[in-house]
Amino acid sequence: MTPVTPDLARYHRQMLLPGFGEAGQLKLLGSSVFVVGCGALGTVIANTLARAGVGQLIIVDRDFIEITNLQRQILFDEKDVADAIPKAEAAKRKINAINSQVEVIAVVDDVNHANVEKLIALGRGGKVDLIIDGVDNFETRYLVNDAAVKLGIPYVYGGAVGTVGASYAILPHTPKADSAWEKTGYATPCLRCIFEQAPPPGLNPTCDTAGVIGPGVSIIANYQANEALKILTGNYDRVARTMLNIDLWENTVRQFKVAKAYDVGECECCKKRNFEFLDGKFGSSTTTLCGRNAVQLSLKQQAGKMDFDEIAARLRPHGAVSVNKFMLRADIKDNGEPYELTLFTDGRAIVKGTKEPNTARGIYAKYVGA
Ligand SMILES: [Zn+2]
Q1: Each residue's pLDDT tens digit, 30-70
Q2: Distance from the CA of 177 to the center of ligand 1, in angstroms?
Q3: Residue 221 per-residue DSSP state
Q4: Chain centroid, CA 40 distance in Å
Q5: Where does the chain show beta strands of DSSP type E?
Q6: Which of 12, 35, 123, 291 lies in the 20 to 30 Å Cα band around 252?
Q7: What pLDDT, in 10s, does the model give residues 60-100?
Q8: 57, 46 in Cβ contact below 8 A?
Q9: Rounded Cα gap, residues 204 and 201, in angstroms
Q10: Which residues participate in catalysis according to the annotation?
């Protein structure tokens, strides 16, 4: 039987690029990419990768679309808000209309240590070829970083909040140094080589407290997608060896040299291969508090690290906040729904107003950060 030739005409302009060609395009069409989170970064990433002809996109997001998302989340519109469609599903519909050659698997779920490897295994051939991050918290990024290093999968990190954004491509070191990128000398340090620990909650602003500028998100997400296209077409020599950092309000573009971080450090993840986030040692575990319409989040790694005064200052514009030496309590209205958020110094948090662990984790990530 004659194999069906994929329609390559639509990719003509990118096949003209150096190091791309028909061979590169066929590699893209045969590739699977895991898009972790489908908000501001994730929609831009998924849009770009689908138009470029990445064969399979696995899009995972736990959230629904809100009117405040439309300022920057380019795959969504007012009808999606009115219909209360989950982000992953709405993204799948849009991408099917943009490029029917792309297979989209939409999963409406939280990405956590119990399911991340199963999600990666949805990729063609039993695992994805690349993981790209459109999430809003460091806990999930470290989890994804652990999984990427353990399984030897390239991972492109990105983050954008306020007017600032950062991105960095990880070609992970492997135990036998036998990956295509490591054999040719292009492995890069992992996220934990560079940031050993996540910043404590409250230290980093979140989009919901500090705002976010749409063009900053697009620039970072497309920078991530660009690195992904290099990696998926095997152009490892073209991948940046630096971490990009931009501030669109201050007009600064910086490239941090991070290449030596693996050699000089003692990384728990990629050097010692101790996958603490994937093993569930860190990261939040949740308990629904029976009869109280509340969920408890237990964030062990944050014990004693919370700066309540700083967090209180950021939360006050959203509602009443009270602080004592044991806890912080805040009333928050999120998408019209009232919640009461209580933070404890031992790393626990209680979100009152929901019985859903995913909703509680979402409120925590939005207003405290992680
Ligand atoms: Zn590392």
Answers
A1: 999 999 999 999 999 999 999 999 999 999 998 888 899 99
A2: 14
A3: H
A4: 10
A5: 32-36, 56-61, 103-108, 130-133, 155-161, 164-170, 242-247, 252-257, 285-289, 294-298, 321-323, 327-334, 337-344, 348-352
A6: 35
A7: 998 888 899 999 999 999 999 998 888 999 999 999 999 99
A8: yes
A9: 7
A10: 207
| Non-local CB neighbours of 81 within 8 Å, separated by 6+ positions | 65, 66, 67, 69, 70
- What is the residue whose two structure tokens read 């736990």? 62
Q: Which of 190, 201, 185, 196 is nearest to 157 (CA)?
A: 190
173 CA distance to ligand 1 middle (Å) = 8
- In the chain the domains, ranked by start, together with CATH numbers, are 9-264 (3.40.50.720), 285-367 (3.30.310)
CA distance 217 to 223: 10
More confident residue, 136 or 68: 68
Give me 245's structure tokens: 């950092």
pTM across the whole model: 0.84
How far does the centroid of ligand 1 lie from the alpha carbon of residue 270, in Å?
4
Please name the residue that has the structure tokens 């007017």.
163
Instruction: Supply the Cα-derived Rg of the chain in whole angstroms.
Output: 21
Residue 292: how many CB atoms within 10 A of its CB? 11
User: Which residues make Cβ contacts (< 8 Å) with residue 236, sequence separation at least 6?
Assistant: 171, 180, 181, 184, 186, 230
Instruction: Identify the helix (H) or strand (E) that includes residue 187.
Output: none
